[in-house]
Structures are given as structure tokens and as C-alpha cells.
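# nightly structure sweep
# worker-07 picked up a monomer target from the shared queue
# config: single-sequence mode, recycle default, output format = C-alpha cells
# input follows
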Amino acid sequence: MQCNVNKTVCMSYAPKKRSKIVSHSFPDFTLDGMKLKFVSSFRYLGHIVQNNECDDDDIVREIRNLFEFILIF
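# output follows
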């Protein structure tokens, strides 16, 4: 398996109950000797995924695309 380190990111999700939080920071993950970055959102298969389990950014993107499509016609 080959991974592109420049396109690979890490994301952590907080538990729903704050009492279940074990740590606020995580150790660095490395792949092929390069450190992977932690992100709060990224685009996966055309959808925006966020670590707060909210899809508002993806909905806004879809609405923007819809209006651009309507304005073209």
C-alpha cells in the first residue's frame, strides 16, 4: 500500500461526554518518517468532514454550488 504523506491527515473526535476526555493532545503520528498534521476539517470524496460532527460547511458549499448552477442557466 502506498500513501501520499502530503494528502494524509489525522483528525480526532472529542467524546460526547466531557468526563470521558482522556487527553487534549495526541502524540505525533509519522508515516514514512514524515509527521502527519492534525486538522479540524478536510474534504473526503467531495464532502467536507469536520471533527465537531457538524456538516454546516458542506451544506453551505452545496447551496453555493446550486446557486452557481442556477445562475448559469
